[in-house]
Amino acid sequence: MIKGKIKEIREFCEFNSDPKIIAKYSKYFKEGFDGFGIDNKVLVNQLESWSEEWKEDMKLEDYIDLSDELMKYGKFEEKSIAIHLVKSKKSEYKEETFDRIGKWFKLGISDWATTDVLCMLVLPHFFIEHIIGFDKLKEWNSSQSEWQRRAVPVLLVELSKSKNDLKYNETVSVIEPLMDDESEYVQKGLGTLLRELWKKQPKETEKFLYEWKDKCGRLIIRYATEKMDKEYRKKFRKAK
């Protein structure tokens, strides 16, 4: 059953591939865009069709198994399809589901966009519904995958947009081990999160940034302070 659905997904992607869209997307991927280039409206319509058509014979475990294969061998759109299908079964999520999803970074998540789609569509539900706590997320800080480490701040950004407000001290305790991370993608995620924290709790966030300004990557500071007054943010420059 799963092999048949993977075949159907691949045939859809190949049929709807557009070289112009591939060229358009390529400029956003420094590491190269490995995708088919599919019009977003076409993709969304097909996802809605599959979710409805397959909802009776595909349980969450089936979609996870299908996603494992797409993460290993699929292109960008196939991985996005996998994430959307798993999202359609969020009512079935358990702690074990989070652990299985975490393995996707070893299997084949290899770009910022797939990471961010996962953080937007799937991961917040585990925390909003209190299926797991932040201790689980902290385990990702030591991952060898920069994309899994990036997922930590990006997920927290998504949670900050939800009605489930983040507690400042708890949030900082999650990300602090990443503040000396050398990955530019991790740094951008951290900076974006700190910018969002600054909007709500500026004094605490500025104190944190000042403590780290001479030790952390400059992208963190750049992103975190970009909404501050031009003169004011000079205080966060690295000391010479």
What report would you give on this structure?
- The chain is mostly helical.
- The chain has a domain at 1-97.
- The protein contains 15 helices and no strands.
- α1 packs across α4 (60-73), α3 (40-54) crosses α5 (76-87) and α11 packs parallel to α13.
Shape field: globular
Helix and strand element order: HHHHHHHHHHHHHHH
**Mean of pLDDT:** 94
Instruction: Give me the count of strands.
Output: 0
Q: Which structural category fits the helices and strands?
A: mainly alpha
Kindly, what is the distance between the CA atoms of the first and last residues, rounded to a whole number of angstroms? Answer: 62 Å
Treating each run of at least 4 consecutive H or I residues as one helix, how many helices? Answer: 15
Low-confidence stretches: none
Binned, the helix content reads 55-70%
What's the alpha carbon Rg, rounded to whole Å?
19 Å
- Beta-strand content: under 5%
Sheet with the most strands, sense and barrel status: none
Task: Give a short overview.
With 240 residues, this protein is an all-alpha fold.
SSE inventory with pairings:
Blueprint: H1 2-15, H2 19-26, H3 40-54, H4 60-73, H5 76-87, H6 95-102, H7 104-107, H8 112-121, H9 123-128, H10 134-138, H11 146-161, H12 168-175, H13 184-200, H14 202-212, H15 218-225
